[in-house]
Design a protein that fits this description.
Helix content: 25-40%
Strand order of the largest sheet: 8-7-9-10-21-20-18-19
Structural class: alpha+beta
Number of helices: 16
Distance between the termini: 111 Å
Low-confidence stretches: 726-771
Mean pLDDT: 89
Shape: elongated
Radius of gyration: 39 Å
């Protein structure tokens, strides 16, 4: 039976949740619909718990189908392949929101499938997918301490906008996704354009009100058709075993916790664990035999020891204010920065904070290096990339060597959000920018170290960023009314604490934020304290970075390509590219420069060679320029006729140099001046407005370059013609001598028309000239 509920979803209408019509064999299924965007969520579980597993086996898979927008995938196989980075980021968003809400000790394998079935390219599918996943789990028989609601908050012209559309997101200074129960926030993901802490807090506050409305809608659907939750056996440690572990471990555990070096501390804690577990097994397990319960006792002893260790660390911080490495709650670990670490990179920096170390490397590329993205919004490009790598050696471990996983993609995207607002615009800085963060050591907060090393590498490359950015990870220890907010948490505090709160930004505002809360009931006063403390720590880190490199280098790295931007008429793009790319390929092969052309007529020329840049620029101009009246060109003689020479002054554009315009003196034959293939300087003296034919003059080009006055020369020519005309009349009267405008010499008649010397010319009286 189909059931439907509507949930207020901001200015763009209601979100409709449906169940009971499709995917009825899944343990829980829901459709979320907003506009013509539809996302289907299906939740399933295994039939029994997985034994011997010390973590919750949850998988979230988010897929966007191309048929959702009426397209066929553009890859070779013409079907969807592995999920792309945006799909992986959305899957992580859902995973981080729902994972903390499963009961402790629940070890059934759970899979949540999220499929975008339809997308109107107006309403983003990520938040509806999250709500659908929460509804599917809440209605299923899978134990789940939900439901959880979700909302996206934008900030446009000083106003908060709930669940903005794609066009609205382009205008927004904030992109904040918040999930939470009816009473508390449990996950935040945000990118912003340097907004203040007060604006972010205000967004979190209004977001909580919206998530409560979503939770109420899901609860209504559960009342209509929810299933009874299955019972499962939660692993419980025997009280006697727990007491014995605490009694045995506590006296020596405090000393192990206070060891400041990470590896040495871990080894001491592990060695003590093994010693305590062996003693407990000997004490509580009978002798070896068929009835031995040693494996169960050992498992309980390990759980009891880990719980004792966690409580000891937390109690030490809450009661003494001193952390395991000796720092206070607000203290930042020692910071060093090594700028220009790699000699051949465009920009590089090693940023070290305590035992967390990141090598940031910036590479500047051309427009052709942009990443091509083919998703449900169509084909687009990305000019800023940040790739985060976390090899196993950075924590002194071994694991299967493979490509980047979900965690690496998520951390890289967070650092990319943090740095993107400070980059110059493409109109003034037409480079593709790629930053790679290599994590060389890790003891907490490696994503925020990537922000710092990435920013320093940008400055080392000479990228004119608007302001330096730093990142810091905040933590929380809460026990009743006792609260400790920790700055710059290390790995152990992240694992044992109640909150992981990453904040990146400038001195003026926040550019990225990510928060995962493991408990409920955190008030906004605690969040406000955490943001204020994060600002204090962020400014300290920026001070340390400024000591190493106070500002971007004044010039780009000499190893980076130089890019010049030109504008041509979009209708001339075809002339520049040529048939099958012939012309643009010739420019690249001749000069060595890289040429990229955009649809609006913007041409990017990239090269490190100044001469190659000038040559490429001129070749582009020659291919795309229009002939200009009175301009002098250097052209190639492409054809010789009896009455003049045709000269190509631009590609596929030639003009006629009449025989009378070939030289400043009289020319008997065209071949006396030039032959086919010769290069010649000519001046444009006329362009026919109807046919576009071009008249050229070598004579006027010579006179202009030599500074000869055209008027004086014309007067001399007139005087010469008058003198020659008088002598010619006498000769005619004396015996009909050759006319000076016969076919052997050519010339002008009284009206100034050119005569063809091969066909003869007429004298003033109209008689045919001849020999």
């Amino acid at each position: 039976m189909k059931h439907t509920v509507s949930i207020p979803f901001g200015e763009n209408g209601d979100l409709v949740l449906e169940t009971g019509q499709v995917a009825r064999q899944a343990h829980g299924s829901a459709l979320a619909r907003i506009g013509n965007t539809i996302v289907m969520a299906n939740a399933v579980r295994s039939n029994k718990q997985l034994e011997g597993m010390d973590f919750f086996p949850l998988q979230v898979d988010y897929r966007e189908k191309h048929y959702a927008v009426g397209r066929i995938p553009g890859n070779f196989f013409r079907r969807e392949g592995r999920p792309g980075t945006p799909e992986t980021i959305n899957a992580r968003l859902v995973d981080r929101s729902i994972r903390p809400l499963f009961p402790k000790g629940f070890r059934y394998e759970v899979q949540v499938y999220l499929t975008v079935l339809s997308m109107d390219q107006i309403n983003p599918p990520a938040v509806p997918a999250l709500i659908a996943a929460s509804a599917a789990l809440s209605m299923s028989d899978i134990p789940f301490n939900g439901p959880v609601g979700a909302v996206r908050v934008g900030y446009i012209d000083g106003h908060y906008v709930f669940n903005p559309t794609f066009p609205q997101r382009d205008q927004s200074a904030l992109d904040l996704v918040v999930t939470g129960t009816s009473s508390a926030i449990n996950m935040v993901e945000s990118g912003s354009k340097g907004l203040s802490e007060q604006v972010i807090l205000g967004a979190l506050n209004v977001a909580q009100e919206q998530t409560a409305k979503v939770v109420a809608g899901i609860e209504e659907l559960v009342r209509l058709c929810g299933k009874e939750k299955i019972a499962f056996e939660e692993s419980v440690v025997d009280a006697d075993v727990a007491a014995a572990v605490k009694e045995t471990a506590s006296p020596r555990l405090a000393d192990a916790i206070r060891i400041q070096e990470k590896k040495e501390r871990e080894d001491a804690v592990d060695a003590l664990r093994e010693e305590v577990v062996v003693q407990i097994v000997e004490r509580f397990a009978p002798a070896e035999g068929e009835e031995s319960n040693a494996p169960q006792v050992r498992k309980q002893a390990v759980e009891a020891y880990d719980d004792t260790f966690k409580k000891a660390v937390r109690e030490m911080i809450l009661s003494t204010g001193v952390r395991a490495d000796g720092r206070g709650a607000k203290d930042i670990r020692p910071i060093t920065s090594d700028i220009g670490f790699l000699p051949m990179a465009h920009g590089s920096a090693v940023f070290t904070r305590g035992q967390t170390q990141s090598l940031g490397v910036t590479t500047l590329g051309t427009v052709g290096d942009q990443q091509k993205i083919d998703d449900l919004m169509g084909i687009s490009t990305e000019r800023f990339l940040l790739h985060y790598n976390f090899p196993s050696y950075c924590v002194g471990e071994t694991r299967r060597i493979m490509g980047p996983g979900r965690r690496e993609l998520g951390h890289g995207m967070l650092a990319q959000k943090a740095l993107e607002p400070i980059l110059p615009g493409a109109d003034t800085f037409p480079y593709t920018v790629r930053i790679v963060s290599e994590i060389l050591e890790s003891n907490g907060s490696s994503s925020m170290a990537s922000v710092c090393s990435g920013c320093l590498s940008l400055m080392d490359a000479g990228v004119p960023i608007s302001s330096p950015v730093a990142g810091i990870a905040m933590g929380l220890i809460k026990d009743g009314d006792r609260v400790a907010v920790l700055s710059d948490i290390m790995g152990m505090e992240d694992h044992l604490g109640d909150m992981d709160f990453k904040v990146a930004g400038t001195r003026e505002g926040i550019t990225a934020l990510q928060m995962d809360i493991k408990i409920s009931g955190i008030g906004f006063d605690v969040l406000e304290q955490a943001l204020a403390q994060a600002l204090e720590g962020r400014c300290h880190i920026l001070d340390c970075m400024a000591e190493a490199l106070p500002a971007p280098r004044p010039e780009l790295s000499p190893l980076a390509p130089r890019i010049e931007i030109m504008k041509i008429d979009p209708q001339r793009i075809g002339d520049l590219i040529g048939p099958s790319g012939k012309h643009i390929r010739n420019i690249v092969e001749t000069t060595g420069a890289q040429i990229d052309v955009e649809d609006d007529g913007t041409v990017f020329i990239a090269t490190n060679d100044g001469e190659a840049m000038a040559n490429a620029r001129q070749m582009v101009l020659d291919l795309t320029a229009d002939v200009e009246l009175h301009k002098i060109y250097t052209g190639k003689v492409v054809r010789i006729t009896d009455f003049g020479a045709f000269v190509e002054i631009l590609p596929k554009k030639d003009g006629l140099v009449h025989v009378s315009e070939l030289d400043t003196s009289r020319v008997e034959a065209v071949t006396d001046i030039c032959r086919q293939g010769d290069m010649m300087k000519v001046k444009v003296i006329g362009i026919d407005p109807d046919s576009g034919k071009v008249r050229l003059s070598r004579k006027q080009a010579i006179m202009q370059e030599q500074g000869i006055d055209m008027t004086e020369l014309e007067n001399e020519n007139v005087f010469a013609r008058k003198t020659e005309g008088g002598r010619g009349s006498g000769r005619e009267r004396g015996g009909g001598r050759q006319h000076d405008r016969d076919r052997g010499s050519g010339g002008r008649d009284r009206g100034g028309r050119y005569q063809d010397r091969d066909r003869g010319g007429r004298d003033r009286g109209g008689r045919e000239g001849g020999r």
